[in-house]
Amino acid sequence: MKNSKTYSVPSKMIMLISFMVLFFLYVGCDEDDDIVTTPELEIKEVASGLVGPMGIETDAKGNIWVTESGTAVPDADNDTHNNNGKVILITPDGQKYDAIVNLESYANVHSDELQGTVHILRDGEMLYVLSGNHLYQANISNFKPGDTPLDAGSLPSEDVFAIVSKLPLASNPDHDSHSYNLTKGPDGDLYIADAGANAIVHRKGANDYTILAEIPAIPNPLFPGMGGPTVQSVPTSILYDGNAFLVTSLTGFPFPAGEAIIYKISLSGEVSVYQKGLTMLVDIVEGDNSNRLVAQHASSFKPASGFAPNSGSLIWTNGTNTTVLADGLSQPVAIKQVDDHTWYVTTLGDGSVIKVTYQ
User: Fold this and answer.
1) I need a labelling partner for 34 at 20 to 30 A (CA). Which of 117, 169, 209, 352 fits?
2) Quick check: 343 and 314 in contact, CB under 8 A?
3) Is residue 79 situated within a structural domain?
4) InterPro entries recorded for this chain (predicted)?
5) Does the residue 281 lie in any domain?
């Protein structure tokens, strides 16, 4: 994610209204503030003490795989490529183990922001990891909790930045690239939401990348008071819904409230609007039969104080209406769907993984 280069369904309405009433009447916390429970919603912390938790996946054994972004703090040689990103494995009983270490982490030269280990995708025995400039590929079929962690330096990888930053893009005059999130398309290829290039990148094979679509900038409603006349889209996640890709946008600085858009992108690259009126979106998953579920990172941003604390949300959307499922979250980043009423969520603000269950 980065700053600008310059610095619900009508037939469910009664049920949803009832849910909101119950939410405000019955929300409660346990003694450790780990659980929020209502008759229909439970939020439980399953892991804490993580350092910059970002991407999340699960496997058939019930393990949770989470990335830690790293720090990009210069070392003694003033090398900003600190390479201390990780993938950790969390067992069903909550034990944490390093699974992949020494993943690339550095400060982006265009935004000065951390470009560390972000999202992951498990495809059978293969774990794809986006970190720094690179797409890493790790075969995890034989990895067991407690094994010596895999070293990123020994893994096959591809320099996405080197390729994408050279592609001609009207939306990327600074030749930036920040491969941030990814999914598998109907053709079996990988599709990457590039938050630096403001584009969806199609990986056809090893080191074979093309641009599927550019995501346009939008007018900045806070100009001239804050920021420039336009705001970058900053695509943050991508989901194939069976017909097209749905892509969320964070928007760049000054992160204007209500201006984040979910885009719909056809397999041929045609871009249209799926849903407007949202704020700082960072992920999207299948949801249930009627709605997709998106994560709002925060409700507002101020240069002096940053993102509003504990203002993140999970929000239902069907392309027309939106309804809050859960709010008061501490900077959610990624969602992993378990089934149509259960999700794991990484929360960057408090270094946790939470389990959200909605009946």
Assistant:
1) 117
2) yes
3) yes
4) 6-blade_b-propeller_TolB-like, ScyD/ScyE-like
5) yes
Partners of 238 in the β-ladder: 247
Residue 16 phi, psi (nearest 5): -70, -40
Q: Which of 103, 106, 108, 29 is nearest to 65 (CA)?
A: 103
Distance in angstroms (rounded) separating the CA atoms of residues 351 and 49 = 6
Q: Which residue type sits at 200?
A: I
Q: Answer yes or no: is 108 within a domain.
A: yes
State residue 158 phi and psi, 5-degree precision.
-130, 135
- Count of the separate structural domains present in the chain: 1
Contact 116, 106 (CB under 8 A): yes
List, run by run, the mean pLDDT of 10-residue segments along the chain (359 residues).
36 33 35 64 97 97 96 60 91 96 87 89 98 97 96 97 94 91 98 97 97 97 96 97 97 97 98 98 96 98 96 98 97 97 97 96
H or E stretch including 30?
none
0.70 surpassed by pTM: yes
pLDDT at 75: 53
Nearest-CA neighbor of 108 among 263, 303, 309, 252? 252
Residues 4, 229: Cα–Cα separation, whole Å: 11
Residue of 353, 328, 329, 359 whose CA lies nearest to 39: 359
The answer to whether residue 4 sits within a structural domain is no
Range of the domain at 59: 10-358
CA-wise closest residue to 264 among 213, 209, 197:
213
Residue 35, strand partner residues: 44
Among 89, 88, 90, 70, which residue's Cα sits nearest to residue 80? 70
- The whole-number pLDDT of residue 73 equals 64
Amino acid 359: pLDDT: 87
Please give the single-letter amino acid code of residue 341.
H
